[in-house]
Each structure stands twice: as structure tokens, then as C-alpha cells.
Amino acid sequence: xxxxxxxxxxxxxxxxxxxxxxxxxxxxxxxxxxxxxxxxxxxxxxxxxxxxxxxxxxxxxxxxxxxxxxxxxxxxxxxxxxxxxxxxxxxxxxxxxxxxxxxxxxxxxxxxxxxxxxxxxxxxxxxxxxxxxxxxxxxxxxxxxxxxxxxxxxxxxxxxxxxxxxxxxxxxxxxxxxxxxxxxxxxxxxxxxxxxxxxxxxxxxxxxxxxxxxxxxxxxxxxxxxxxxxxxxxxxxxxxxxxxxxxxxxxxxxxxxxxxxxxxxxxxxxxxxxxxxxxxxxxxxxxxxxxxx
Length: 293
What we know:
By secondary structure, the chain is mostly helical. The protein has two domains: about 10-165, Orthogonal Bundle (Tetracycline Repressor, domain 2); about 165-293, Four Helix Bundle (Hemerythrin (Met), subunit A). About 75% of the residues lie in helices and about 0% in strands. It has helices at about 10-20, 20-35, 45-70, 70-75, 85, 90-115, 115-135, 145-150, 155-160, 170-190, 190-200, 205, 210-225, 230, 240-260, 265-290. Helix 13 packs antiparallel against helix 15 (about 240-260). The model has no long low-confidence stretch (mean pLDDT about 90).
């Protein structure tokens, strides 16, 4: 008989894992970047509150994603240890935690920051859970492309916390939106069989490995091109442009190397470098703002 793991008293660490902290950390960083480079001024306490709301919203979305996908996660080695899939946290507890955290994040953002930021935060959570998780992921291999909208919104939320929205923060949105498919598919190459077993139509197991590698190159190139836009718009200086070109060249080089190689572990290298790439260019934006104003 299969082993049934009884629900026990979950620890704080188990609830922390529900928030997908590694994903949340990148969301916090890009959200802070949008807040930092936005024209205008925000009180440090309100700025911290805005970032806390972005973090809470991201964590809530991750929690609700785990709650909804718990049965799918049980069928994949990569995800079967998640708290809801492994039985460490009861589904009802995860659902309640995610809903309450979502509501608190949005309400605090509305009261302490402003309505625009709160609406964007609600849109981010709703899109990730309702559109990406429920509708797109189980039905189309383009799920991560369209679903990338949710992950690309945090810098726009950060900007909206400080200043009225114009076209400039959407250039940051575009970078992350185009970066997401290359980043995720490079990882998914190594789990194509698991996704197929779980019944999820991810690009590697629907279009094939080689075609997915082509798409990864295309999106990497588009990402690098889009990353030049903040410099063109006057949002950053030569430090940012230099980092963008150097690390962008490295990003594209690794995707081409992945395409030519039969070793799927190259995909993991692209995945890891893509995180470094995004971190470096957004860190360069922050540094440029500090140095040049």
C-alpha cells in the first residue's frame, strides 16, 4: 500500500516554504529597483511598507499556486517535497494562509502606499493564480510566456508607490517579461519527462528539445535588446549600459552553446546565469541612480 503522510503540526519553516522564498527574493529585488529609480520621494517607512506588500503578495501567490497544484506536485520529483504535496501542511491551511496574506498585502498597500500600487498588486496575484496557474499552465505550452506578465509587474508596482506611472517603468516590465521564457525553459529542458508524466504541456515536451532551444535563443536576444531601452530613455548611464552589454553577451553565448550541445545540463547553466544576468542589470540600474542621480 502507498505510504500516507499524516498531517502534523506544521512549523514556521514549512509556512515559509509555501511562499516560494527564492522566487520571492527576486520579486522583492526588482520591486525595490522600480521604487528606487522612480522620480520623486517616498518616506523610508512607507517605502519599506511598499516592498513588504510586494513580498507578501508574491508569497501569497506562490502559496496559492502550491495549494492548487498539490496533486500535480506529488507526481514530480522536483516538487514532491513541497509542503502541500508532501502532507506537511493541510490544503485548507495553505488556502487560508494564501488568501489572508493576499488580502492583508493589498489592504496595507492601499492604506499606506496608494491605490495604483494596490490595484497592480491585486492584478499580479490574481493573474498568477487565476490566469497562469488555473487556466494557462495546464492548457497551453505558451503558459510561461503569457504568465510572465505577473512576474514582470513588481518593478512597476515599486515605481507606482513613488511616482505616477508613465512609459518608463514599463521598459523594466518588458525586460522581465521577455527574460522569463528563456529563464524557465532552460530549466524545464531537464524536466520534460516529468512535465509530460504530470500532464502539463510545457514547451520542451510539446515542441521538442531542439525547437525549445531555438526559442530560448530568440527570447534571450530579445531580452538583451530590450534591456538597452532604459539607457535610451535616459533612465540609466554608461555603467548600466556596460553591464547590460557584457552580461547580455554572456547570456546569449550560453544559450547558443546550449543549442549546440547534447548535454541538457547546459540548460541548468543557462538557468543559473539568467538569474545572475537579471540581478546584475537591475543592480546596475540602482547603482546608476545612486551615482548619477
